[in-house]
Amino acid sequence: MRTRPLKVALLGCGVVGSEVARIMTTHADDLAARIGAPVELAGVAVRRPAKVREGIDPSLVTTDATALVKRGDIDVVVEVIGGIEPARSLITTAFEHGASVVSANKALLAQDGAALHAAAGAHGRDLYYEAAVAGAIPLIRPLRESLAGDKVNRVLGIVNGTTNFILDKMDSTGAGYQEALDEATALGYAEADPTADVEGFDAAAKAAILAGIAFHTRVRLDDVYREGMTEVTAADFRSAKEMGCTIKLLAICERSADGTSVTARVHPAMIPLSHPLASVRGAYNAVFVESDAAGQLMFYGPGAGGSPTASAVLGDLVAVCRNRLNGATGPGESAYADLTVSPMGDVVTRYHISLDVADKPGVLAQVATVFAEHGVSIDTVRQQGKDGEASLVVVTHRAFDASLSGTVEALRKLDTVRGVASIMRVEGE
Ligand SMILES: NC(=O)c1ccc[n+]([C@@H]2O[C@H](COP(=O)([O-])OP(=O)(O)OC[C@H]3O[C@@H](n4cnc5c(N)ncnc54)[C@H](OP(=O)(O)O)[C@@H]3O)[C@@H](O)[C@H]2O)c1
């Protein structure tokens, strides 16, 4: 074993970074044996230097992250600051000064992954980011390496624990959205500003990363259709139950039937209780991968938290350190397939539509005609009447999202349709 240590600069020492530092210390001997050389924490960049950080030598702490990555003797930079800047500049500077990079930064990777991969490649360095998607769950490496000989057709997952916690609460207790969100906040599962989670931004970043790797095609954040889950109601869960379904916020990356294009989207959807994703409870994450040869695979586990996320970071750190000792690099960006990324209108799926209508003869026929005119075939219809008003629940066969949008627009114009109470996609069948 080499005795000269590999030097690691830790950028950020918060929820994830502090756990990375702790495991580097407590598992030092095992890490050295697995890598073939000891790893040494050479510096820790933070914003508030005076804060007491258990287990961290205060002499290593600095607020000058740029100077740390420019030192020239750093082998690996671990970026766990988060956000776009200064993380992006620091990572680029790290490559320029000879370091490889491990990051947990989904927002940055989803936005600038291609440029960062190019910078890593130009300097012959590694960029690894297993922790950026679904925390501890091994997903990037299985897609990038284990499934490199297969053809992935679909990635369907629960990749945000906060939203899964909220939806699971609504499902199990009958609570409304706000009540479930309040509980998630009180228990620390939701941040004070939960927008990134509940509006699907966090899941969309992960969907862009997963789709890019799964389909060997660049998928930008803007290519991902995104709908949050703030409009999901207790009534939607009652409807879902009547259909033998529950509701999850899903990230779905799909190859088209003819294989020439892909789509990526995030939205709430009904899934059958028999689907493995339906039983993912609390703040857990799970990702279902479908490929030609392997068939169906499911990856399940804690998608966030300091220690689980640090596990993924450390796994990358070991891989990157091994590569350095071998004078090699791991897989970089693979975008050779260059498939068309299609808009949401091209997605084909089933829909559950709940309409408030006038309770009088002929309404059902009128509504059915609008569906037929837009090429959307109806699977089932359920009508409940009360005091001159009625609710009509229509479940469709598979149809283009654009056709469904056209149907809903036309339905809204009917005098007999008082309102569209909810539209929910039905997945996983
Ligand atoms: N938390 C999770 O469960 C989780 C899961 C998966 C991925 N991630 C990703 O991991 C990354 C880190 O998340 P986190 O939860 O650990 O964040 P965090 O607790 O807010 O920690 C951020 C750290 O970065 C430091 N920092 C902020 N701005 C800085 C700057 N300009 N220069 C130097 N240091 C700076 C902070 O310093 P101070 O300590 O002085 O404030 C803090 O130590 C993010 O990209 C996040 O998306 C997190």
Automatic annotation (TrEMBL):
NADP(+) binds at L11, G12, C13, G14, V15, V16, G17, S18. Its cofactor is a metal cation. It comes from the Bacteria. It catalyses: L-homoserine + NAD(+) = L-aspartate 4-semialdehyde + NADH + H(+); L-homoserine + NADP(+) = L-aspartate 4-semialdehyde + NADPH + H(+). NADPH binds at K106. Pathway: Amino-acid biosynthesis; L-methionine biosynthesis via de novo pathway; L-homoserine from L-aspartate: step 3/3; Amino-acid biosynthesis; L-threonine biosynthesis; L-threonine from L-aspartate: step 3/5. The active site is at K206 (proton donor). GO terms for molecular function: homoserine dehydrogenase activity; metal ion binding; NADP binding. The keyword Lipid metabolism does not apply. CDD domains: ACT_HSDH-Hom. Its EC number is 1.1.1.3. One of its GO terms (biological process) is threonine biosynthetic process. Pfam families: ACT, Homoserine_dh, NAD_binding_3. Residues 352-425 form the ACT domain. L-homoserine binds at E191. It is an enzyme of class 1 (oxidoreductase). Keywords: Amino-acid biosynthesis, Metal-binding, Methionine biosynthesis, NAD, NADP, Oxidoreductase, Sodium, Threonine biosynthesis. Catalyzes the conversion of L-aspartate-beta-semialdehyde (L-Asa) to L-homoserine (L-Hse), the third step in the biosynthesis of threonine and methionine from aspartate. Belongs to the homoserine dehydrogenase family. NCBIfam families: PRK06349.1. This is Homoserine dehydrogenase. It comes from Streptomyces corchorusii.
